[in-house]
Amino acid sequence: MSNKTKIESSYISSVLKLNNNVVFNGFSFGYKKNISGEVVFNTGMVGYPETLTDPSYSGQILVLTYPLIGNYGVPQFDTADFLKSKFESDKIHVQGLIVSEISDTFSHWSGKNLLSNWLKDNKIPGIFGVDTRKLTSMLREHGTMLGKIMVDDESIDLYDPDRDDLISKVCPGKIEKLGSGKKKILLLDCGCKLGIIRKLIREDTTVIRQPWNKEISSFDFDAVVLSNGPGNPAVYNDLRKKVEVLLKLRKPVLGICLGHQILSLAAGAKTYKLKYGHRSQNQPVRLNGTNRCFITSQNHGFAVDDTSLSGEWRTWFTNLNDNTNEGIIHNSLPFRSVQFHPEAAPGPTDTSFIFDDFLNEIK
Prior knowledge:
Elements (H helix, E strand, L loop, with lengths): L2 H7 L3 E6 L4 E8 L4 E8 L5 H5 L7 E5 L3 E2 L4 E2 L20 E3 L2 E2 L8 E3 L1 H7 L3 E4 L3 H11 L2 E6 L16 H4 L5 E4 L3 E7 L4 H7 L4 E7 L11 E4 L10 H11 L5 E4 L1 H9 L4 E17 L5 E12 L8 E7 L5 E6 L4 E4 L14 H8 L3
Parallel strand pairs: 3-4, 4-7, 5-8, 7-10, 13-14, 13-15, 15-16, 16-21
Antiparallel strand pairs: 1-2, 1-11, 2-10, 3-11, 6-9, 12-14, 17-18, 17-19, 19-20, 20-21
């Protein structure tokens, strides 16, 4: 009996049912429960601890296309100094996980736990033994779909995260100050990845991490960062209005991922849903007006419509795979944003200059 067969024989059957009634059979691992969400795929070869803890995946059932997952285990979350951890938040945010094959052992100096046990601790269901190549091809052809992970016959309704206020579920509940530098940065947290905070904390900065839905009681800050987060940007009208007010201060603003989309909406532009999104570590983007290209890490299902930008703004970056917008910049004021994640730096430091330029604009 092969090792794969031994693993499968010790797990119960589970299925993924898509909203077009196509069913993928597999085996349940992690937490045993039925769950529904939007089925999306990520083509990254590594980084599942970071990916699963990214708040931007809230509401989504994630398919990892790399065939073997879990072989380097899961590191320990450092509660004493979370900025040194390998995670992007303190818990898993995906609805569920779908993989081709899982490893029942791990080998890595930082590994402390099995992927299956980690999912179980976070009450997240998973399926392995699924033909992820076929599933991904279907999602690329038809676009992302709603789906259900089912380990029993109990009925569960389809859940569409695009209609939900997801950022209120993932942003922190309190305001906190990080660092002690002279440059004060207001981080409007919509589900911010810890990697962004790591890039902002420097000797000369203080980061004021504020939940997006808390009232800004003081304008005693020098610049604003609009963080990443989950969901449909068009749902967040209150957040857009808050950003419109912040723009009137004419202080430096940097938007990342969802923050980029919200800044664009506040500037009068429009957003739209991509067929299957950009979720990978190898998205090529070009700096407009140059031949400079960068390899970027991305996780988003919506994009900004270039043609809807007013004359005060211009496209900053463009995706070389599908020519979609990857960033905007104001022609005269210190406002800019990017659709990709400059802190993830798969290049490995290709786009870190975005943080440097932003911080240098703070007077």
